[in-house]
Amino acid sequence: MKYLILAEKPSVARNIGDALKNMTKHEGYMENDRYIVTWAFGHLLSLYDISDYDATKKSWKMEYFPFIPRIFEYKVKPSQKDRHKADFGAKKQLNIIKSLIKRPDVTQIISACDYDREGQIIGDIIFKVLKPKQPVFRLLLNEWTAGAVIDGLEQIKPNTDLLPLRDAGISRQWADWIIGINLTSVTTLKFAKPSKQILNVGRVIMPTLKIIYDRDLEIRNFVSETYFKLAGLFLKDSTAFEGIYFEEKMDQFKRKSLLEELIRDIQLPTTAKVIEVATKRKKEYPPYLFNLSNLQGMITSKYRGFTSAKVLQIAQSLYEKKYITYPRTSSMHLDETLIDKTKNVVEVLKRGLPYEKDVIFNASKRVFDSKKVESHSAIIPTYLIPKNLSEDERLVYNAIKNRLLVQFMAIAEYDETKLVLEIKDSGLKFHASGRIQIEEGWKVVENIQSKDRILPKVIKGDVIDVRELNITHHETKPPEPHTEKSLLKVMETCGKKYKDNQSEEMIMQVLSGFSIGTAATRAEIISKLKRVGYIESKGKTLITTELGQKMVDVFPVKALFDLEYTGRLENQLSEISKGILSKNVFLRSIFAFTESGVEMIKNHDEVVLKESVIKETLGKCPNCGGQIIETQKSFGCSQWKQGCKYVIWKNDKFLKSMKKKPTKTMVKTLLKQDRVFVKGLIGKSGQKFDAYLRYEKQNDSEYYNWKMEFK
């Protein structure tokens, strides 16, 4: 009798194998006397394309849409090189999993895919296609340390307990397919000329684009206004400080002449009397534990060269190496069941640090609160101390480690003093404020420098010298362009307005369930917007391209830009995962929305949003005799609409693997001579070499591959 464990990735399978010990390695799995551990490569299966349902629909035509399958079918995911072929590795691994399921000694299956809705459907779709007869159970873990794996296997649940989570994952997948396939197709056919230039439409990329567009529009339409302030320089016991004139709680004035009149008769130097003094001791709590969005926001704003996608990739790597807990979480608290485990982690992490004695563990509700945890707790380190981290991994890991340790240190405290002064014989009142850090507390961990604004010690009634009065000129400033940090926050809160003084905890409590995408998907949403040409980065800021602006202006299905609508959809998916809402009710609304959207686009006025950028004719197509032209993304045949498949992509993966990109000169030579001599190719060993390259049609398809020759 053996248990078959299915992990989401080979790296996770290795972690499980390390915990179970005495594993013998085989192709596609490992085994000991009790367990067999195999793995997927993330999604091994994908939804059918339209042409899989109906072979006559290989190319897009308006009359084919809307297209909504009666039954959604799955196939082995397509090869990246040729979408008409199944991915070889995925097909091979699926067959290995199938053979293991059919083994007579396998009496139970355990899905060990990630504990979220995407992880749930990775395993469940494999089981749907392979139809195992054995009972399926679920291993639900937040980390992959050996102790967690062993404990988790003692607490597995029937996979049927996770049906609501599966339904939420399926609903998300089908909804995105229906909206994406239908609206992308008809939008491209309607608004792109020629329609080879695809105009991507999606449930989550459209509202995200609108967020950036709206900020760009605010900046473009911003009209700066001038205002003035009256600043006074005050002196007490050799300590100088600034105060600002105010009346009726206002200290900004549109008329400079008003301020000039006020100070016309004041002879300097003069004196002012302190008429109010208020000092308060204030506390500064550490920021909450990281969820994924906050981790991405902190790292991308603090360090150069990081994107939210890169932060997620690094965090995922740290997770798979067993150094941190599950990173794709939206929670900023820990489940109360983790108190003892977290105490152990804190004791390990603080050992040898200069502030070791200042880290005192306690089970605070600010850290441990099960009611504020959805699926996964906040991101924290495990008890394993990492070795041989890259510099990028070290930065991310230390941020997570420090964020945990500061929770158990003294609260930082400062005294804030506010003064009101009145200039002698004028009635003019000035306010001044200052602060003095009393207790650094948790700030010492990251060496946060407190900015003290020092005021002299004064009491009510003190008389202070007035040395200068200056009218200062100011301009109102437009809002800042979005950065990945600010965009992630808007996506997380679905654009809901909240006051600056509201805590992160309060914001997330109010907006729970309403968001654009999930913690796991937001980085990819931003990356996709860049890939499809709707936004671009300028330094750390994000702005819309001309195409992105046109898309928002012209695209007629305005509900897809509506943050409220998108938030409701994400909230409905959350309700499906909790068993509150039916999958079928959700999908019926998506189908109706899509059908309506398709008709809206079909009936819209003709507007060209995107035209191919044809730079130059490079030569004759060796396949059909047409012209090879350069476009934004490729060197391809002008007869593509007639079915010619000759194209060399500018991001060609074969050339990229050898640190090369295709150039116009290369393509011209290739077309003229059937091959091209390329210098400076870099092999897997890192050594440079030269070779001839041919671009030849595959024997069993209409697509082309590179071939290498050395003479």
Report on the architecture of this protein.
This protein is of the alpha+beta class. The chain has five domains: about 1-155, Rossmann fold, CATH 3.40.50.140; about 170-220 and about 480-600, Topoisomerase I, domain 2 (Orthogonal Bundle), CATH 1.10.460; about 225-280 and about 415-475, Topoisomerase I, domain 3 (Distorted Sandwich); about 290-410, Topoisomerase I, domain 4 (Orthogonal Bundle); about 615-710, no CATH class. The strands form seven sheets. A seven-stranded mixed beta sheet has the order 2-3-4-1-7-8-9, with helices on both faces. Strand 21 and strand 22 form a beta hairpin. The longest helix is centred in the N-terminal third of the chain and has 29 residues, at about 165-190. The two termini are about 60 Å apart. Mean pLDDT is about 90; it is low at about 495-515.
Mean pLDDT: 90
As an assembly, this protein is single chain
From the alpha carbons, calculate the radius of gyration and give it in angstroms: 31 Å
The residue ranges in which pLDDT falls below 50 over 5 or more consecutive positions are 497-513
Going across the major beta sheet, what is the strand order?
2-3-4-1-7-8-9
Q: For the record, what CATH class of the largest domain applies?
A: Mainly Alpha
Structural class: alpha+beta
- The end-to-end distance, rounded to whole angstroms, is 58 Å
Provide the descriptors you would attach to this structure in a database record.
Rossmann fold; alpha+beta; 34% helix; Topoisomerase I, domain 2; globular; Topoisomerase I, domain 3; seven-stranded mixed beta sheet; 5 domains; 20 helices; 27 strands; 711 residues
